[in-house]
Amino acid sequence: MRNFIFAALATVALATPASGQIVPDDLTTMPPVTTDYEPPRTPWGDPDLRGTWPIENLDQMNLPIEREEEFGNRAWLTNEEYAERLAAARESDGSFEEELRTRGTIGLSGWLESTDMGRRNSMLVDPPNGRFPPLTEAARPLQEAGRSSWVSGQPRDWITDLDIYDRCVTRGFPASMFPFPYNNGIRVFQAPGMVVIHHEMMSTRIVPLGPTERWPEDVRTYMGQPIGHWDGNTLVIETTNIVDGDAADPDIHRRAASPNAWDTTYPTSAEARVTERLTMVSPERIIYEITYSDPQVYTAPWTARYDWTRNDGYEFYEFACHEGNVQVRDMINSSRAQRLRDAQAAAEGGEAGSGE
Fold first, then answer.
1. Signal peptide position in this chain (predicted)?
2. Closest Cα partner for 205 from 220, 219, 186?
3. Confidence band (pLDDT; 50, 70, 90) for 164?
4. CB 274 within 8 A of CB 302
């Protein structure tokens, strides 16, 4: 994995602020995505979304997926709250003055000022309170059974006791579409009848456009089967056939506001369906919307919206996750050893350990 030396440095080089959404007077209102920008066209006539669109700045500004309860239905920061966020960003930028000057970047404060995302308090925009809907009763036992190295107290006897991110398979879907603390690069490639979304971390999605036969119900992948079409200049992607299970999409909630979000898993059912909308609103900006519906898990659908900002100078490096991933072996061996030690202690009337 790549270590980010400049963790607080926003590496988006923008000459002018990006256009797009305007912060409304009513801070509980989320305006519709603007569609008045006419994007360039590919040689075959489709809107041209090709480029590199890292979404790291959302992580650097600590924008959670799920809204803090104290904000209620207010989707935007007040002027005072925004001023505090901007002041903190400028203080952070002050530690990187030389890098900002020599690398030609605008810093985190510059990025905050270039997009209205700097005024948002969560990525979730629906439900109106910006929080995930409650789980169904059927989903609660699956959540409790979810296997992951992030969940404490679980015995780990084999790789099936760890989730797909632990094992370097993928972050899952739709988790792969949300920011992570590192390696958040996204590249979009296009060809006639095809869009490819290449992730810096462990995943590539190949999206056919137009009428495409759905896979049989029992054919599933961790990233699902995406099928796309154009709605005017907006790319719409419908994804089904996602692998289901108690920890099939392990880290979607780990950027939530809840302090316990890293110590739980969320299940995925066979009925999960995802609709994404990618709308270019300026040469440097795509607004990404995602609506997730899984009636077996959530009591209602939820929708998130956030920006992709172009940075064609952003470099992808090899994400060598599986190579050298000794943690899986170590976690299994240590868990087995601890449970053996606990059993021996119990037999001798001593104290047992954690069993992890």
1. 1-20
2. 186
3. confident
4. no
